[in-house]
Specification:
86 residues
């Protein structure tokens, strides 16, 4: 088990625009990622990079509509093709 005693815990939520639909996520920024004499701008950049990396690795969309989309798309393509043949 990793000891995060000295690490900074970041807690964030994914804003989907829905009231009450948030699920908090968290990760740690280890002290090893800090370098001497980092400016505020560099620290903010590190924070945003770590946040984005965690998001990209752990949050992904799940859909229940893929099959319905494929059927709809095929119908639309067939309809468009039949209209151009007329």
């Amino acid at each position: 088990m990793v000891n995060h005693e000295k690490d900074f815990k970041v807690v964030y939520e994914v804003d989907e625009g829905c009231v009450g639909g948030y699920k908090p996520r968290s990760f740690y920024i280890p002290t090893e990622d800090l370098e001497e004499d980092m400016s505020d701008k560099t620290l903010a950049s590190l924070f945003r990079e770590c946040l984005e990396e965690d998001f990209l690795q752990n949050v992904y969309p799940v859909s229940q509509d893929e099959e319905a989309f494929i059927e709809w798309a095929k119908e639309q393509i067939a309809l468009r093709n039949s209209e151009t043949e007329d």
